[in-house]
Design goal:
The protein is of the alpha+beta class. It is built from 4 helices and 3 strands.
């Protein structure tokens, strides 16, 4: 995000997971979850990552969109305001 070069040390499960991918594939616009230790140069300035585990996530284009998760019948035909009021008053289970 800042354009800084950040040293990344990969070991354990993270190394095995990264080895399964080609380097260009690993670092080109991929979403990953990394478990490990972050080292900072100063406040908000990352200098090094020690990754113990890496999980590759689906790309943003593969994630559900709003239209995929909207349920028009969620409130059973009641307006959202009335639904919330009934829920707060304990009339809905």
């Amino acid at each position: 995000m800042t354009g800084d070069i950040i040293k990344c040390i990969v070991s354990g499960k993270a190394l095995a997971e990264v080895e399964r991918h080609q380097i260009a594939e690993v670092f080109h616009n991929r979403r990953v979850q990394v478990i490990g230790m972050l080292h900072f140069k100063s406040l908000g300035r990352l200098s090094q990552v020690e990754a113990n585990d890496v999980r590759f996530l689906r790309s943003r284009s593969e994630l559900p969109q709003v239209n995929d998760i909207i349920d028009p019948d969620f409130t059973g035909g009641v307006s959202s305001e009335d639904y919330i009021e009934e829920l707060r008053n304990g009339r809905l289970s």
